[in-house]
Design a protein that fits this description.
The structure is a homodimer. Chain A is an all-alpha fold and about 350 residues long. The first copy, chain A, has a single domain, classed as Farnesyl Diphosphate Synthase. Helix content of chain A is about 65%, strand content about 0%. Chain A contains 16 helices and two strands. Chain A has a two-stranded antiparallel ribbon with strand order 1-2. In chain A, β1 and β2 (about 135) form a beta hairpin. In chain A, α3 (about 40-60) crosses α5 (about 85-95) and α6 (about 100-120) runs antiparallel to α8. Chain A is globular, with a radius of gyration of 20 Å. The two termini of chain A are about 30 Å apart. The interface between A and B is large, with 55 and 54 residues. Chains A, B: Keywords: Isoprene biosynthesis, Magnesium, Metal-binding, Transferase. Chains A, B: This is Geranylgeranyl pyrophosphate synthase 7, chloroplastic. Chains A, B: GO terms for molecular function: metal ion binding; prenyltransferase activity. Chains A, B: Pathway: Isoprenoid biosynthesis. Chains A, B: Its cofactor is Mg(2+).
Chain lengths: ~350, ~350
């Protein structure tokens, strides 16, 4: 007990302090880190999400020109799970960095997520009216404001890292983060994936390989950018950054597969966005290609393969990453913590 | 003559080598630098534009996913004057830096110019069919491709500086450039200005102050970002960077005033874009507020005030900046070198 108490971070200390029914203690800190009795993902997430929301709020103060900042804040600060920015923090902590170092890249990735949602909902893209439980940005502010505020969030992502990370970490790391974010979001990453995705609509012959490519570009890139930038900010070495990159790609794809599953199995209210969209638009999606159960199994398999990449890390420090990966195949939409 | 021959850069050596009619030589290198007989802006521009075009071509190779890169290249490589990227190079050289150091930020600014044109022409913005003498991006590739390829150019601008400037200049300078570009393009710069501009359409009471704000945000920011990043890349000190910032703001505003003038006085063919647009959309513009001649005079005054900021610099090194500012109030659209 003494060993666990001194070697585990506070988030891994036993949650239930009652001694009425003594529980068997894990044999080691490693086992404790992987036990749900000794680590609460919900508590970890909730503390980090609060931190991220505060930083996002501060990153885009309401100032002139008023309307563009209102529109940016509307989408950026809408209630959301913030799994991806938390992943940046957890990756930073996994390599031994402090939480504060990961906040700038965590915010940057969340800004680009908001931008991708704003643009995805535009009439010339998916033409959607609801996002994160509220009217989509162009429904609330008009189309040209949605276009411009989305771009402003993209631009701010890079600026934010350059301005806010620079005093905390060496300039070389900031430059690596900017380059990484650019590769993740750009024409060979998220934006290229959005275009391939859009053009695949209504195509009858989209196979698993193409779908995997689209999902990796569109979604897994966010997970990857977050984990890699978090690790860079925290001072991770090449091997650590490489492992977390693989971990995040798999977790990201697992998340997206579950997104497809939830699109089929949930109501719009549960999702906070229009449900059944993929089916309605005859869009290729995992449940269509491998059935709902097959897709669930694939998501679980991806999560297990992600966890394998964590073997190198100090188990207590990597505990949040372990539990995050494991929680994704079990997620149930809006209410779940992943 | 010997003094001039050894102290002037090649671009300042006399253009006409004929000795048939000996001309009076300027009394000093400073005078030579400001003499049009001893400096050809056209030759300087043409050499730099070639260098910039080559770098832009290499920056966006045609690769999968094919369509987004085709669309990016279509707008980025369309024939253009490239005044702004050349300004980045000239500013770098004015502080004593080599041309090569300014190429990455020069390309970055040109990428964002292309992005702003693509998005400006979209149906939800100005809904324009022609740009730089060819069908606008969404007319050629469709609306969603135009949206995404514009964003990809914006993202690439930051990535390009991080990847290409980093081996040439210290990381601290790269971080400063990324922050500067973000401020110039973002919600308080170009993108915010585009929104205020769009919202001012049809408003009867747009005054000179508001118009100046719109033009400074929308256009002068590009000049400012280019000059400042060029100076940072070249290793300029705070005083030099500050002077070039002021110089560029004035040159940028002068350029935009002349743009308004040309919109009224030229044909679409001369401009390479739809002429008379501002009048047709009842958009506030300088000729409307101060008359064509008044606007021309204002542009000339701004250029003179820009030139005042160059007093600090070595005249031969600052010669391109001097001549560039002077050429702007005389520009005549597509064919002119400014």
């Amino acid at each position: 007990m003494a060993y666990i108490a001194t070697s585990l971070p506070p988030s891994l200390l036993p949650l239930k302090t009652s001694l009425a029914r003594p529980r068997r203690l894990p044999a080691s800190a490693a086992a404790a880190a992987r036990s749900e009795e000794y680590f609460s993902l919900r508590e970890y997430m909730s503390a980090k999400v609060e931190r991220v929301n505060k930083a996002l709020d501060e990153a885009v103060p309401l100032r002139p020109p008023q309307k563009i900042h209102e529109a940016m804040r509307y989408s950026l600060l809408a209630p959301a799970k913030r799994v991806i920015p938390v992943l940046a923090i957890a990756s930073c902590e996994a390599v031994g960095g402090e939480e504060a170092l990961a906040i700038p890249p965590a915010c940057a990735v969340e800004m680009v997520i908001a931008m991708s949602f704003i643009h995805d909902d535009l009439p010339c893209m998916d033409d959607d009216d609801v996002r994160r439980g509220q009217p989509s940005n162009h429904r609330a502010f008009g189309e040209h404001t949605a276009l411009l505020s989305g771009c402003a969030l993209l631009s701010l992502a890079f600026q934010h890292v350059a301005e806010r990370a620079a005093p905390l970490v060496p300039a070389e790391r900031v430059v690596r983060m900017v380059a990484e974010l650019g590769r993740a979001f750009g024409s060979e990453g998220m934006l290229g994936g959005q275009l391939v995705d859009k053009e695949s609509e209504g195509k009858a012959d989209v196979g698993l390989e193409e779908l995997k490519y689209i999902h990796e570009c569109k979604s897994a890139t966010f997970f990857e950018a977050a984990a890699v930038c978090g690790a860079i900010a925290g001072g991770g070495g090449e091997e650590e950054v490489g492992r977390l990159r693989k971990y995040a790609r798999r977790v990201g794809l697992s998340y997206q597969v579950m997104d497809d599953v939830l699109d089929v199995t949930s109501t719009s209210e549960e999702l906070g966005k229009t449900a059944g969209k993929d089916v309605a638009s005859d869009k290729a999606a995992y449940p269509k290609l491998m059935g709902v159960e097959g897709a669930r199994e694939f998501a679980a398999e991806l999560a297990e393969r992600a966890v394998e990449e964590l073997a190198l890390f100090d188990p207590p420090k990597a505990a949040p990453l372990y539990h995050l990966a494991r929680a994704i195949p079990c997620r149930k939409g809006k209410g779940s913590c992943a």
